[in-house]
Write a sequence for this structure.
């Protein structure tokens, strides 16, 4: 096994029902001499590699925008995004490098209300990994 990460609790829905815990991995993302280290939610419903939260969006300010795209969200809503190239690595919670992921695209929504609370990792990264999920621990094999 290369790395393991504990799931994070997801709280309760509006009716008080406990929501399932969420699998996370830890990434280091580098761009323009800046570095992001932290947990990222795994989401197989996201086609891309990384969807930014506010902290990552602020870190990428003044970095080169390499393109723009439109994502389609639930309810036939669109989300306009700027694209940034970063170099990514899978890391342990302590920041130790597990494996390089190479150049990745970060999707940063143009509209602040479309930013996620957490950084989201999509299939472009997940499909590069051999992952074992059991509801408590994410194992990267």
């Amino acid at each position: 096994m290369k790395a393991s990460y504990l799931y994070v609790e997801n709280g309760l829905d509006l009716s008080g029902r406990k929501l399932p815990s969420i699998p996370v991995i830890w990434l280091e993302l580098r761009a323009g001499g800046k570095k992001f280290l932290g947990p990222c939610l795994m989401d197989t419903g996201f086609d891309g590699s990384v969807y930014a939260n506010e902290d990552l969006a602020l870190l990428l300010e003044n970095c080169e925008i390499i393109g723009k795209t439109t994502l389609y969200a639930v309810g036939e809503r669109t989300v306009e995004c700027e694209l940034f190239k970063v170099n990514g690595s899978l890391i342990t919670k302590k920041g130790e490098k597990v494996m390089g992921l190479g150049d990745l695209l970060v999707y940063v929504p143009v509209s602040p209300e479309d930013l996620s609370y957490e950084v989201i990792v999509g299939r472009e990264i997940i499909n590069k990994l051999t992952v074992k999920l059991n509801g408590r621990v994410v194992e990267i094999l």
Q: What stands out?
A: Residues 54-59 form the longest helix (6 residues). The first strand starts at residue 3 and ends at 6. The mean pLDDT is 95.
